[in-house]
Structure formats: structure tokens, C-alpha cells
């Protein structure tokens, strides 16, 4: 009798594990909301992503928390605002082991999920950041590079050298195949905790692109070995300029005061927006990259079906933030405008009733909501450190919304000219506030680095201990009554492109005061009460550390 009971319990455990959904989370890089067919782009070819949206839920009013890679990605991993987790390129910190234990992949692995990470990692985790090894050890399957991949990842990361392909989406696709399919070609560079994915455990796979980010698209070379997508697609079309595009030479009145946004110090990688010719070339590459990503997703869904995994695998798709392509004369990110904070979130759940599929939700959601949503779908209790909301009910056709306001912030205020700013918005209005920008000039740093023979990248990107104090004060000062030096108010319903600043319009004084008051509530909640769980991560302690 005891033997029968034991067999029953083992069988029940396997059955329960199999009933838990598999989850695949796909994250693109610098992909603006309007770079998909399903979000209104009439040029780009993304039929497979569009199909996910048409059979799932597309969140049309989704936002990031910080419009720059590292803090946004850590916010997704930890379900926290940057003001709470305390890590950015200019923070001099990495995520501590303690904080990392509450990341979604670690929590899911500790609760019976087989986990994988493929593509790009741009989050410094553990003592020593990217060199700690903690990130790699946290997964059952690892096939990724730290920092930028480039369009040809073998040029930058040895882990990809055994791949057959040379281009980023196709190399990532090889990793996806190996993770899912026990009969797929084995990649010598990939790190395996087990030889293959256990069939009796649910899996959680994170796929992370470094596309259509400019750091990768600018390395595209139209090589003979490149797929036709990356050589000729879209090049026979008349590509229009972005709506509200202004070439640098035609700017009469800058979008922001010159003493606030120092455009002369902008990173040179965003100078392609300055002329229509350069912009069109980069935009074509972005479109090509999106179609390459889309093909991977088509291959992924076909593979799931072939392996009979499609009926129990949830797919979630989003971007780490958007990007300016010359709209209103702006280039780059790290601002609180819709072009940089507004992203698509698509949740496809094959178990959602058909009547609730193909829906669009305008509920205010954020990328920090993805981790608690995945845990809810997996039947796992979320850590108390999470700040995001569970939106699985909205993804299944529910109507009850999770927040009335969205809070976004930019704490990456450096020699590259970006000001600190924060915004709070509802479905109708957005309020943005800016703080004094007294950072030293990148242009001058480059000049003196060249004069003295100092490597320019060391001058620009190395992070030293005093910078930690500066960054911590960026977090604390607004909560300690630092006053804004500039404010904006936009009526999003009537002015979604944020062309007309109404902050001085007395007709909207009540709206402005309401949002100012709400800003205080939102920033206080975003900061939380506990100290950031971080390690010191500067070039003073780690001379070869990358930031």
C-alpha cells in the first residue's frame, strides 16, 4: 500500500509540474512602440508578432520605468523602480546577491522551473558586476553575452563562436532551438546545468535581443553571408521621415532649453538623426532587424507546435524602452516623453478563452508588472520586494485596472547632456519636471582626453567612487524638496506627440496642481523605505569593470 501511495504521489507531482505553464519572455532593445504592424506601422513586416497580438492581448498604454537599457532591464528583473533598486550606468553599483535572489528567474527556478537566458545581458549582477559569474550560475541554460552583442555577436563574445549563423537574430535562434529541442544541434559555448531540458518540469526562457538598438544596427555591413532580409529588404521603398521630424540644421527653437538638455554633448551614436539621409539608412536597418526578430518568433512558435508544447506555453513580448529618431529634433533616449517610455506589451496565453483573445487594452501598465504577472501565472507567490502589479486578469479579458497613474524617471544625468527628470501621467494628461543640469561636458572631456593621450572611452565611461555619492543624491534630492527648474504639461488625449506644453496655461492650472501632488505620492512610493540592496561597482574597486 505504501508503495502504491508513493507512486501516486510521484505521478501527481509530475502531473502538477506539467500542468504549470511554460513561459517565454522576449525583450527587444530600443524598440519604439510604433515599430510593429500591430501597433500601426504600415511599412514593417512583423506578421508573427502581429499574430501573437491578434491571438493574445496587446497593451496599448504600457510604459517602462526608466528609458535607458540597464536600469530598465533591472527594473524588469526585480520588479522595482530604479529609485528603489539603485543601479544605472552612472550609479557605481551592481545588484547585490540578496536583491538578485528576488529576481523573477531565480524565484521561478527555486520553485521548480527549468530556466534559460539567451542573447544579451546588460545588468551588472553580484560582486564585480558582469565578471561575478553570478548571472550565469543562476540559470540552467545560459547562452548570452554581457553588454552589447553587435549585429555579428561572434566579433564580441566567444560564447557564440560555435554557432552556424553569424547574425544576431539567427544566433539567438540557435540557442532557442537547443534550449527547447533535445534533438537540436548542441552549442559548445552554451552553459548547461543539465544536458537537456527535463520533460517533467515547466520551463521559463528569457530571450533578450540587442536589436533594433543603434549599437547593433550601425554594425550591419550587408555581407555576402547575411540573409536577404539584412541586405535588400525595404531598400526598394520610399521611406518617409518620422512624423514631426526636424533636421538639426532646421531647428529654430529647441524642444528643451539649451541649459537643460545639452545637445552638443549627446553621444555620437545618435547623430544619425541629424540629417534625413542618415536617418533613413538607420531606420531601414531598424526595420530589417525587426523583421529578423519576427522571423525568430515565427520559428519559435513553429518549434513549440512541433514539440507539442504550444498548448501550454505563454509568450510575453516587450521592449526595454523606445528611442527618438529626430522627432522634434531629438535623438536618443533617457527622457520621459512617450517616444521613449511608451512600449508594446503583448501577452499570448493559449489557455485564454477564444472570446477574450485578440483584445487591445488601454489600461495603464508598466514593464515592472511583467515579473509579478509571470509568477501569478506560474502559481508562485511574488516577493514582498516587488513593486509591479499582476496584470494577468487584464490579459485574460478582465476589465479591472491596476493603477490610475504611471511614474517614469531618468536618473542617468551625465556628461552626455541629459537632464534628470520625472513624470507622472494618467490616460489624459502627463506632467514632467526637470532639475538643474550642471554636469561637465562630454565634448570637453573628449577634447582633453585626446590632448593628453587618455583613451576616450575610459574618460567617458569609467565610473569612480565619488560618482556614487552624486547618483545617491540624484535619488534623494527631489524627495528632500529639490525644486524643478522646468516643467511640462501635455494633454495626451489631444496631443499624443507632446508638441504643446500647456504648463503656463491657466485654463489647466487645476490639472497641473493635481499632477504635481500626485508626483509626490508616486515618487515616494517608487523610492520605498529600505536602502537599495547594491554592491560597490566602480573602476576604483574593479579596474576592468564595464559600466
From TrEMBL:
The keyword Transport does not apply. GO terms for molecular function: hydrolase activity; transferase activity. InterPro entries: Alkaline_phosphatase_core_sf, GAG_Ulvan_Degrading_Sulfatases, Sulfatase_N. Residues 1-17 form the signal peptide. Residues 21-380 form the Sulfatase N-terminal domain. Keywords: Hydrolase, Signal, Transferase. It comes from the Bacteria. This is Sulfatase-like hydrolase/transferase. It comes from Algibacter amylolyticus.
